[in-house]
């Protein structure tokens, strides 16, 4: 997938494009010039990603006429907190960024979430650019405007909806992605197939991407890499379609939370030691299992989901007790007073939102684990 393509994202607050291609990092500055008139751009990245791509991005921005600074934070979900946010904000102030300037988030989901939140609250809002470097952030967290930090009570409990001026997805950077993170990311991709696309589901079933890449995902053929690029683009198209209709998760956008009600609970209960994609995968299987028991979805649909998740070497259940899952799930954003919204698979390619009382949800969770 060498040619640069774009996917439009149109929301009430802002419209922008997601640029998808390979090996175009050295041209990002040129693409930004017509999008904004910022004088300064501050790159926010982590200590894993910045040494790999910071210099290249800085040079591209400098060549395009921007004055560039950078902030490097520790990697990992454990650092997506108020302390790191405070550090970023103080550094932005020290660099004297103004409302005309911008933050460029260079990294995976953690960097994108916290840099996005910093852009929303610094000076009550400055421009944001996303340059995702993990498969998961390419297909999910960099699209749609969600920003967040974690609180002690749970994941992503403080944040905003802040749309970027542009998103730049360069698939060539996946060559440096840790194999464990690469495999973990497929949890979110499988989710897209379940909620919206039978054709994508068929492709993922008949052309298992983890098996095709083997132990080293960098060794795929040119055809493999093209197919991976097309899968990424399709996931972006699905998310764009959903968030364009419901920017702030008042209705339709909630379908993107399939697997997350339990997945986020697993993450929090495990102190974020298990990857987000893996937790979502386990959450999808748990939801399907409990939904089948309650006759909310068929046993066939349940088995299709569990079997494909397993074939991608992702977890299909959790050892965390149901009462612990209930505790964390009911402290999540999906709770509404004395009820909670749960996304249920109707069949592959279609889901619906089921509102449950907390007592119903507690009973539902008792059938979730294998």
Give the SSE map.
Blueprint: E1 5-10, E2 15-21, H1 28-32, E3 40-46, H2 50-63, E4 67-73, H3 82-94, E5 102-107, H4 109-121, E6 127-132, H5 135-141, E7 146-151, E8 154-161, E9 166-170, H6 179-184, H7 186-196, H8 198-206, H9 209-213, H10 222-245, H11 260-269, H12 276-293, H13 299-311, H14 322-329, E10 335-336, E11 339-347, E12 350-357, H15 358-365
Parallel strand pairs: 2-9, 3-4, 3-5, 5-6, 6-9
Antiparallel strand pairs: 1-2, 7-8, 10-11, 11-12
Give your account of this protein's structure:
With 370 residues, this protein is of the alpha/beta class. The protein has two domains: 5-177, Rossmann fold (3-Layer(aba) Sandwich); 181-366, Dehydroquinate synthase-like - alpha domain (Dehydroquinate synthase-like, alpha domain). 44% of the residues lie in helices and 21% in strands. It has helices at residues 28-32, 50-63, 82-94, 109-121, 135-141, 179-184, 186-196, 198-206, 209-213, 222-245, 260-269, 276-293, 299-311, 322-329, 358-365, and strands at 5-10, 15-21, 40-46, 67-73, 102-107, 127-132, 146-151, 154-161, 166-170, 335-336, 339-347, 350-357. The strands form three sheets. Strands 1-2-9-6-5-3-4 form a seven-stranded mixed beta sheet, sandwiched between helices. A three-stranded antiparallel beta sheet has the order 10-11-12. The chain has a two-stranded antiparallel sheet with strand order 7-8. The radius of gyration is 20 Å and the shape is globular. The model has no long low-confidence stretch (mean pLDDT 93).
């Amino acid at each position: 997938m060498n040619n640069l393509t774009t996917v439009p994202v149109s929301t009430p607050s802002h419209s922008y494009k997601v640029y998808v291609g390979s090996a175009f990092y050295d041209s990002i500055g040129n693409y930004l010039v017509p999008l904004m008139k910022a004088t300064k751009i501050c790159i926010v990245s982590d200590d894993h990603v910045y040494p790999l791509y910071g210099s290249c991005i800085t040079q591209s921005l400098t060549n395009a006429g921007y004055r560039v600074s950078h902030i490097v934070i520790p990697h990992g979900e454990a650092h997506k907190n108020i302390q790191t946010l405070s550090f970023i904000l103080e550094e932005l102030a020290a660099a004297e960024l103004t409302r005309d300037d911008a933050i460029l988030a260079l990294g995976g989901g953690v960097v994108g979430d916290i840099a996005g939140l910093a852009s929303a609250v610094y000076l009550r809002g400055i421009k944001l650019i996303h340059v995702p470097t993990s498969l998961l952030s390419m297909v999910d967290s960099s699209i749609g405007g969600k920003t967040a930090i974690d609180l002690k009570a749970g994941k992503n409990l403080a944040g905003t909806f802040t749309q970027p001026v542009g998103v730049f997805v360069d698939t060539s950077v996946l060559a440096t992605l840790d194999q464990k993170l690469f495999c973990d990311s497929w949890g979110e991709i499988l989710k897209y197939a379940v909620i919206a696309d039978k054709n994508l589901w068929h492709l993922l079933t008949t052309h298992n991407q983890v098996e095709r890449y083997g132990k080293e995902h960098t060794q795929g053929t040119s055809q493999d890499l093209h197919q991976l690029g097309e899968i990424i683009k399709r996931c972006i198209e699905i998310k764009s379609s959903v968030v364009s209709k419901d920017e702030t998760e008042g209705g339709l956008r909630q379908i993107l939370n399939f697997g997350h009600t339990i997945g986020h609970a697993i993450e929090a209960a495990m102190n974020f030691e298990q990857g987000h994609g893996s937790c979502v995968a386990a959450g999808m299987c748990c939801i399907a299992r409990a939904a089948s028991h309650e006759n909310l979805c068929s046993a066939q649909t349940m088995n299709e989901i569990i079997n494909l998740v397993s074939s991608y070497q992702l977890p299909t259940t959790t050892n965390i007790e149901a009462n612990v899952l209930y505790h964390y799930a009911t402290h999540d954003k999906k709770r509404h007073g004395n009820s909670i919204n749960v996304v249920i698979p109707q069949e592959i390619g279609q889901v619906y939102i089921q509102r449950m009382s907390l007592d119903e949800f507690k009973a539902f969770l008792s059938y979730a684990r294998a």
